[in-house]
Amino acid sequence: MTQTTFEHHRTRALAELTVPFDVIVVGGGCNGAGSAWDAATRGLRVLLLEKEDFGWGTSAWNSRLIHGGLKYLEKYDVKLVRESLREREWLLRAASHLVKPLRFVLPFYERNAHHRYVLRTGMLAYDALSFDKSVPTHRVFSPADTAELIPGIDRTGLQGSAAYYDGQVEYAERLSVEVALAAREAGAVVLNHARVDRLLTEGDRVVGVEITDLVGGGTHRASAPVTVNAAGPWLDEVLGRLDGPTPDRMTGGTKGTHLVVDPWPGAPRDAMYYEAMTDARPMLVIPWLGRYLLGSTDERFSGDLDTVSTDDDEIAYVLGETNKIFPGADLGPEHVLWAYEGVRPLPFSPAGPTSDISRRHDVRDHAPQIEGLLSVVGGKLTTFRQLGEDVSTAVLRRLGTRRRPSVTRRLQFPGARAADFGRFATAFRADSPFPAPTAERLTAIYGTRAAGVAAIAAADPALAEVIDEETGAVAAEVVFAVREEMAASLADVVARRSMLGLSADLGVGALDAVGSIAEKYAGWSAERVSDDRAAYLRYITRFRPRSTV
Ligand SMILES: Cc1cc2nc3c(=O)[nH]c(=O)nc-3n(C[C@H](O)[C@H](O)[C@H](O)COP(=O)(O)OP(=O)(O)OC[C@H]3O[C@@H](n4cnc5c(N)ncnc54)[C@H](O)[C@@H]3O)c2cc1C
I want to staple 276 with a disulfide (CB 3.0 to 4.6 A). Which of 175, 281, 384, 527 is the partner? Predict the structure, then answer.
């Protein structure tokens, strides 16, 4: 690999900044990347800017579900549920390597605030609203069948259960990465580690941005008649970078905690969606990468978004509720491998129950106070494509350009481009020189792009070597991340490309191997690798790895 592949891309992208864009998108989470993708495929000249890395923010630290949101039916938000179910179906097809059907069991208890007949009505409505689905409709189980299905479940007052399907994206980070790649492929100029420090104005109009290049250093400017603020929970912080008066506060995040634990005796095979005993909140137990995700909380948050971490009382709450529904689990803080925290970018709402805050997205035009600026409030992982379509429709309206219809609904993710993905995966496993677990992980993570990893390994046998026993990751993935997927730091490679960062040790055991491959094949200096290593070890303290809980 030439030392300069990544630098080449970046130098070219930075050189493009001098030519005006139609639209600048700030924020490379699923919603910013989705907006850039939709706009680029509609023929606009697009710049996407992310201060850290694609999928670094809330788009990584969520429940990793592609779901209609059964709970939103309680709020009669039929439009949101239908939209989400339609997008779920699209994602099951368009990102078939990343998004898989997942069965949920919802137990009915005498003690539940929601009577079982209400829950059954909700299930019927959910099925009706997903009339075009490819997953099975819901089923109801007796108490005895439920206990057989989930041996460890609390049987006190158990009245039965219902099973239904939603989707799961185990590697949520890669969803944003692949959408950013799709945007680039469609012609967008795409830069990670490029922080927007100022929204530049002329009079009452935003005309562009000033950027700090956090890889090569230095500042740059880019101009466009429309800028989209898709910074998720950072939205108000970005508005604070306006030259001129700051608009009223638009978002008020609520933070949600998930705990990662190993399977315990009696743990469910299916995901579980149950009601917390303490406060009747919806809670989740989700099988995930051979472990379990337990969550989540939903509390107003106003601290530093860049360093948000999990509190002891959140850990105690989630473990407490899990132990109540699984009395034999006996999970304590010592069982938590690590914990993560995300901040929901919700519309600002200073009081009232957080569950009452709408989960819909809204594209707000700041005109007439500020021209040329749109802000995206809210939005789920599940609905990022629809949000992107809505954003670029609004951009086209602002530009006064002839309306071009959105095409993203007809497109596939870069890693899902095969007539039959299942057949591709089987053939890849059969033909590849890798051990079976490696071949399997490569198709699960990269989809059809696994062929690109295999090609790198075929060119240099040293790169076919497994560098991490737990996951079966190979050296070629590091080269692929830097060469093909815009990874610019060890953290990018570990946490959002190879997904080594989701291991029990958060990828720490693989860091040295990843670093030496980056040194040898990507030409990173020993100093850069050492600084990156230290930065990653500092970064993951927020996840409270087991040794520190
Ligand atoms: C606990 C929890 C559970 C959830 N579960 C689900 C779920 O199961 N399914 C689902 O569909 N949704 C779920 N969500 C919601 C979903 O994850 C988010 O709504 C979605 O990821 C928001 O994406 P985003 O792109 O708007 O924001 P983000 O992913 O946060 O992206 C914003 C980006 O802007 C960047 N940025 C900030 N400032 C600047 C700047 N100055 N310059 C350049 N870039 C900047 C940040 O670095 C960040 O990467 C959950 C959310 C939480 C918190």
Answer: 281
**What is the mean predicted confidence (pLDDT) over 75-80?**
84
29 C-alpha to center of ligand 1: Å? Answer: 6
Of 228, 85, 177, the C-alpha closest to 445 is: 177
Q: Report the phi/psi class of residue 239: left, alpha or beta, with left for phi > 0 and alpha for psi in -120 to 50.
A: alpha
* pLDDT at position 299: 86
Q: Which residue's alpha carbon is at the smallest distance from atom 52 of ligand 1? A: 62
273: left (phi over 0), alpha (psi -120 to 50) or beta: beta
Contacts of 169 (CB under 8 A, 6+ apart): 64, 65, 66, 91, 95, 98, 99, 175, 381
pLDDT tens-place string over residues 294-312: 999 988 888 899 988 888 9
Residue nearest to atom 1 of ligand 1 (CA): 256
Which of 283-292, 345-354, 406-415, 532-541 shows the lowest per-residue confidence on average (mean pLDDT)?
345-354
Spacing, Cα 247 to ligand 1 middle (Å) = 21
Position 337 scores a pLDDT of: 97
d(CA 481, CA 173): 13
Of all atoms in ligand 1, which is nearest to the CA of residue 256?
Answer: 1
Residue ranges around ligand 1 (CB below 6 Å): 26-32, 49-52, 56-59, 62-65, 67, 195-196, 230-234, 238, 256, 296, 342-345, 379-382
pLDDT of residue 55: 98
